[in-house]
Amino acid sequence: MQTYDRIRAGYGEADITPVSPVEMVGFYRPDNRSQGVRDALRLQALVWENAGVRGGLITIDSLGFTVELSNVLRDRAAEALRTEREQIMVCFSHTHSAPNGAAEPDYFKMVCKKAAEAVREAEGNMRPMEAAWGIGENTVGVNRRNEPDQTDGRLGILRLAAGEGPGREVLLVRVTAHANVLTGDNYFISADYIGAARKRLEETYGCRVMMVQGASGDIRPRYHQDNLEYTEIHCYEMARNGFSQEYRKKYESQSRRALKQMAEDICRSVASVYGSLEMQPLERLELRSSFCRFAADVPDMERAAYIAEEAKREAGIDAGMWLEEVKRLNEKGILRQYADIEIQYLFVNQGCLCGVPNEVMCRIAIDIRKGAEEQLLFFNGYTNGCSSYLPTEEEYDKGGYEVLWSNLIYFPYHGRVMPLNRDTAGKMADRVVRDWKKTEVI
Q: Which residue spans within 265-308 are E strands per DSSP?
């Protein structure tokens, strides 16, 4: 491993809570305007200088912006840090109780402005640091299809510290569970369990805490409304038909309890590891990117009609706009759409956060860890954008919301009417493993 002298790092943050009602994103709601704030949203920045190259990790309480908007934000942050876009990694918490950045341009502009401010604050706080990695048990995520072997049991923990005193330590936690404890009948802005866990950890350890999502595309939170059906499809149907006052009252009580349980479990997992972390000099801190093109086949109208009818019957999803787009593509002879995906790697000493702008299935992260034979290689989604679900080949045969029906709702945001083709997950996993083996000794 190449050693650099005196890598410096610093932390900054900004409040990105909207000050007026905004369109929310994450669930279908009859009136999608927010009705207040449950808890504040935060943008956090960790920046560094390594051998004259500056870079930064930005975490944002948001479902996730499109790749296009995320790149705009990265450019603004890179300009503030006097570096390049590929030296900025943006990780979204994927809370389903956040503003829709694409539908709220003023809000998005505010977030970009705050990102630049947080980066400059962090730059002013840079100092030499030490680092330590640890792995706790991720107990807060459950596979949506109730397949226990399809979950990532690792809670990644990275401690960065610069001596003693307040403001000199940052704790980064990588968790794998959808941030939608608060479901479709919540109209209040919230960071969901990410915010609750972050608050508890900061109170416990007296430092700033950043959290990033793992491969959570098919991983739901363990705790939610205890006796109420949970799935996104159910929430879609309930929102469409309206919520009773009795349901809302029960929901509020149970959601408070669920958020607390999620936070407590994460804190226990961190506590089981924190005391044994052995700090080492910060010898490697850098970002690298590789780019891959993947395809998504456009269905013919017969196949599209079947998918639309199934989504309507099973989940009450109106596929009218999606069918019109599929028809337009077929008439123009466009039978395949493409996505140029950035796979970004953040190396910190012997560990690595690797991310793509998709809702990736957890099996992909498991396969990558096994293929690379490295526990500290964490494959994450929601990085530098939030595009469509990325199912594994096995998931394709199961169909349902993640594989097919979500595209009928969100295709305008990610620019494809279907998920990436069934061999994409395997190809991406192979690419990450190859990249890792090329760079692990650098």
A: 280-281, 285-297
Does the pLDDT of residue 3 top 70, yes or no? no
Tell me the pLDDT of the chain averaged across its residues: 90
Among 358, 382, 357, 353, CA closest to 368: 353
Which residues, other chains included, contact 136 with Cβ-Cβ below 8 Å and sequence gap of 6+? 154, 155, 157, 269, 270, 272, 273
Nearest to 237 by CA among 407, 401, 64: 401
Question: Which value, to the nearest 10 degrees, does the dihedral of the CA atoms of residues 119, 123, 126, 130 take?
Answer: 30
Is the CB of residue 364 less than 8 Å from the CB of residue 379?
Answer: yes
Angle at the Cα of 205 from the Cα atoms of 204 and 208, rounded to 5 degrees: 110
* Nearest partner of 258 among 331, 197, 175, 327, judged by Cα: 197
The DSSP code for 421 is P
pLDDT tens digits, 336-350: 999 999 999 999 999
Determine the average pLDDT of the residues in 89-97: 97
pLDDT in tens, 111-126: 999 999 999 999 999 9
Give the chain's end-to-end CA distance (angstroms, integer): 5
Q: How far apart are CA 111 and CA 116, in angstroms?
A: 9
DSSP string, 187-209: -SB--HHHHHHHHHHHHHHSSEE
Supply φ then ψ for residue 211, to 5 degrees. -130, 140
Q: Name the pairing type of β-strands 98-99 and 24-25.
A: antiparallel
| Residues 377 and 369 sit within 8 Å (Cβ to Cβ) | yes
| Stated pTM of the model | 0.91
Q: Is the dihedral of CA 297, 415, 359, 178 positive or negative?
A: negative
